[in-house]
Amino acid sequence: MAVSAYLQLAIRILTVAVAVSAPYIFAAIGEMFSQKSGVLNLGVEGIMMLGAFVAFYFAWAHENILLGIILAIFVGGLMGLLMAFVSVTLKAKQGISGIGLFMFGWGVAGTLFRLFVGGVQSISGLQDLNVSGLTDLPYIGRILFSHNILVYLAFLLVPVSWYVLYKTPWGLKVRAVGSTPRAADTMGINVTKIRYQCVILGSMLAGLAGAYLSVAQANMFASDLVAGRGFIAIALVYFGRWKPFGILKGAMLFSVANGFQRWFQISGIAFPYEVTVVFPYVLIIVVLALSHKKFAEPTALTVPYDREFKG
Amino acid sequence: MKNNLKEILFNIAVLLGSFIIALFLGSIILLIAGVNPLVAYHAMIIRPVSNIYGLSEAVVRAIPLMMVGIGISIAFRSKMINIGGEGQIQLGAIAAGAAALALPGLPKVILIPVVILAGFTAGGIWGGIAGWMKAKLSVNEVLSTVMLNYIAFQIYLYLIRGPLIDPSELAWGTGVPQTARMPDSSIFQRLIQGQRIHSGIFIAIIIAFLVYFLLWRTTFGFRLRAVGEEPKAANYAGVKVDKYLVLAMILSGGLAGIAGSIEVIGVHHRVLEGLSANYGFSGIVVALFGRLHPLGVIPASFFFGLLLIGAEMMQRAVDIPSALVISIQGLVILAVVSSNLILENPKYRKKFLSFFVQKL
Amino acid sequence: MGKIQSMEMVDITKTFPGVIANKDVNLKVESGEVLALLGENGAGKTTLMNILYGLYKPNGGKVLINGKEVNIDSPQKALELGIGMVHQHFMLVPSLTVTENVALGIKFKSKFSMNLDRVAEKIKKLSELHNMNINPNLLISDLSVGERQKVEIIKALYHEANLLVLDEPTAALTPQETDQLIKWLRSVIGEGMGVIFISHKLNEVMEVSDRVEVLRNGENVYSTKTSETNIDELARNMAGRDVKLPTAERKSKYGEDIVNLKDVWAKNERGIDALRGINLNIRKGEILGIAGVSGNGQKELAEAIAGLQKIYKGEIRFKGENIANKSVQQIIDKGMGFVPEDRLHMGTIPGFKVKENMILKDYLRDPFSKIFLLDRTYINDYCKSTVDEYDVRCPNINTPTHALSGGNIQKVILSRELKRNPDALIASYPIRGVDIASVQYIHEKLLEARDNDMAILLITEELDELINLSDRIAVIYEGQILDIIDAKEADKSRLGLLMAGVKEGVS
To answer: Which residues, 6+ apart, have CB-to-CB distance to C22 below 8 Å?
Structure first.
């Protein structure tokens, strides 16, 4: 009896964990590409806010979720273009320019939300997509195959990005550019182009992550919807040591721990509400403290490249 | 000296240029949203300077901006990107509130310094945690300060909803999450009848000069700046780099904490929700606009004080959301850090200067 | 485009803000010859080659290949034309393997996959053909300096370069490795390769080249066949005047040990033993030279004595007291001076004013500060007189230090370290990248300090410098002192063998 109740609970926690880890995977893998090429994009949070709003708006006003998601990715790409222009072409300090991008996205999302929507509105979000045959598998079926299409996409993204990074010529260039741009340059690689591509790709994925939150998870938009997830995604990149499967591991561990925490909350064990809200943020601080980033970090991270600069 | 003046004018020109570019980019967003940017900017920039209310409110906002901006300047100078201003302000405010409520009997000359010091301590501890984690565990300080913001916010809410809530709120059953009113002996004087401008502005300016003095005239400041400019060389010269990173963050958080305490004793006279009003983020813009110099931050904080009250007036007058000002501040940050290419790289600086001189 | 028969650079001009790096420079090289490009630091050699390689855009002039003008606007273009370059600071990605580094320059047919095994195989073949013994699957970070240079050469060969530019290729090699390289170069020009050999070492130039082109202050000053010139002639043209570098006068007596290292062990930042039982003593009034290929523990040795590097075994005695793992400040206060290898980022704070860097170790002392207040008047006066005394060329003492030339930054550091009058001084690569006039000045100052009874540890890769200045020379190899020889008896070939780790039997 008790055993099966625990099993049920474990299945429920894991099922939820798989679903909520998807936006972290999108955003963190995107950030990984950006950082691998040497650009620290701290604006992920702002891009996610904007992506979340755009997707929500088209799902709400035009009842077209797909269009919303596509436009969220597109807007994410535009934000990436802005970040790349400022950080790569104008060589701005990346730590600070990322904060600027974050505030820009935050402010624009907030402004448009108030102008066009006004207050909290809910929408019918993305439907779960059961995979014929697989969903009915015992235990595993529900945990892995009872989700919306974006979740499958997120988990597919992990091996794909691993392959791209380690097995394709482009991935090789990305790794070289983020580590020793001058050497890459002497081999005829266009450092600027690769960095633009990575920052824009990363920001598109952040836009998608934001869209996920509004149209596939919360089914609404609010100004505090993203609630630090963009920054958490960046932390997961550190934890995952700039590797796709490391990031997957981090996103899952984080989501499962969070699932347990929520279960404590529901199961009525008494502790202040604030403690449960604070939990993920404390967890991330602990995670950061435990992930020693020395020697795994791309060596040229945050360093703008100037061919004629003698430094 | 003449060179110095030219340098300052050049800096101001570049900064104003950045600001105008930011407004221009912001107007594109407004056009997309179907709003006339001229109407919005008129309400935001011209309105507040055209009456005493606007000016008074601008100063009210300039005070916390100045403190946070100077704090962030210290952190940035040590290469620590402190974006934990929000949390540091909130904890500073709650500590200040608690101190004032706990010691109502003290005379004003003692109580006000005690309250400010309480705010400094709380904010300093919160900043110091991020500094310590950076120094000892190489935890990225942007991420840790963001996380600490969320944690501080929950502590803050918990305290003003629970242990520190105004007993009369409980008695009347209204339950508004705020503390009781501070004792009069802990409150700054209002300077103009009917306006909120208060004497905290003098304290803020004095602190700005003190920080300037500390950074450029003392051996402590020499070390602090050395660590920020080049930790390897500071270490070589015998400075304990880790210690000074933590001290910089304590000072940075502490100044944000002072901002929180001044908000309590100068404006709200109690601790309540929404008190930090995103000053922690606006302070970043102010610090950059002040070129990370305590004396540059003074005018920058007045400038952005005007902008913040302008945004509120814009929302009331022409119904354009005041959140717009956050995005404009974001754009200003982007524009200012981009302009460093001109300000700090000799190659581009020369090009720009010759262009600049030709035009004049 | 076929093979490069001849390459000509015509009237090349390149300016950086405030500096003319090249002014109407002409240069020609043909296949089957080695052209030596000679000049002291800052003469514009590297800039010229970066233009040839498409890294810098010249302000004027043109490049002709086989008589036809070509526009080399990127390294990609240079590679395609058959120009290969071995940079002084290797252009390799340490976190990638040899194969991956070579593959970076390859245009693969598919965007979605790359056949690295084939690349590795070809590298193996090339490395066997040229006797280089390189394992293509190793990470660059695991290779020695000599091996990295071979990878650079293989990279160029892989891309079928037939004009090879080598920028200061012997700087980090032992004399024996240098001989090998020169032999190899002579053999490939026999097969139709053209070579540009950049150096400031005259004897190498005499040995390897067919023709010599000398640059000074960014201009051609001398051009000749190697067979028709001699070392003195080249030296005069390189410096623009007769240069007589000072040498140490022999002493018969030295004072007591000032610094004494016993069995010192230390790990580098990657956790590998960098010092493995160092025993050394430096006497009063003596310059002890350290010879060795860079990366054999020199940096850790210097930093361990200065207190910047923790040691986990052994002791370092300074004036009798064990200072191992004491704080940097304590060691400074006890009278240790240190001119570090990384001049711009450790020796000075680049964003600080010249005056602030001049008092970097003194700001805490009485006339400079009282209690905690800096005495600005005293500091200004002190720095103004020091600038004059040490002939530091700077607009004024408030100039940011990074705006100064390498030689002047070194003078700022030297003034600070010497004016404190320390009992011992560690000088790491004090003349690296410094113009000849400053070299002369720095050497004179070091000798003067020695004659005033300072104990000096001199670390350098220039054997001439070591032999000229030192009283004794210790050779460091893989974190150990292989031998200590009296400088009077030192000769380059013996030092070279020791630097390569070969310890001769008793003869």
So the answer is: C12, C13, C14, C44, C47, C48, C51, C58, C218, C219
Q: Which one, of C162, C18, C139, C141, lies nearest residue C80 by Cα?
A: C162
Please give the span between the terminal C-alpha atoms of chain C, in angstroms, as a whole number.
57
**E strand spans, C88-210:** 163-167, 194-199
Give the integer Cα–Cα distance in Å for C46 and C16. Answer: 13
With contact defined as beta carbons under 8 Å apart, do A99 and B333 qualify?
A: yes
A247 within some domain: no
Inter-chain CB pairs, A–C, below 8 Å? 74
- Of the candidates A74, A64, A67, A55, the one whose C-alpha atom is nearest the C-alpha of residue A112 is A55
Q: Residue A141 belongs to what domain range? A: 10-238
The domain tally of chain A equals 1
C48 and C55 Cβ atoms separated by less than 8 Å = no
Q: CB C111 to CB A176 under 8 A?
A: no
CA C414 – CA B15 distance, rounded (Å): 39
Half-sphere CA count of C216, side-chain side, radius 13 A: 13
Burial C403-419, CB ≥16 within 10 A → b, else e: ebbbbbbbbbbbbbbbb
Question: Is A145 a member of any domain?
Answer: yes
Query: b/e for B250-274, b at 16 or more Cβ within 10 A?
Result: bbbbbbbbbbbbbbbbbbbbbbbee
Q: Write down the ipTM of this complex.
A: 0.93
DSSP at B272? B
Q: Where do we find the tokens 């805490």?
A: C364
pTM: 0.92
Q: Say which residue the tokens 């981090």 belong to.
A: A250
Give which of A78, A52, A75 is closest to A65, Cα–Cα: A52
Alpha-carbon distance of C21 to C217, in angstroms, equals 7
Residue C506 pLDDT level (bands cut at 50, 70, 90) = very low
Longest dimension (CA), chain B: 71
- HSE of B102, CA atoms in CB hemisphere, 13 A: 11
Interface of A with C in 130-189 (CB under 8 A): 167-170, 172-173, 175-176, 179-180, 182-189
In a domain, A150, yes or no: yes
Query: Would you state the structure tokens that stand for residue A126, as one six-digit string?
Result: 């993305």
Percent of chain C with pLDDT over 90: 72
The beta-carbon neighbor of C347 closest among B222, B233, B240 is B233
**Residue in B148, B150, B326 nearest the CB of A103:** B326
Averaged in consecutive runs of 10 residues, what is the pLDDT profile of chain B (360 residues)?
A: 73 90 92 90 91 95 98 94 96 97 93 97 98 93 95 94 88 87 91 92 97 96 95 96 96 98 95 94 96 96 96 90 93 92 71 61
Nearest to A203 by CA among A68, A33, A25: A33
Cα C203–chain centre separation: 17
How far apart are alpha carbons C145 and C130 in whole angstroms? 18
Number of inter-chain CB pairs under 8 A, A vs B: 150
Residue at A135 is within a domain: yes
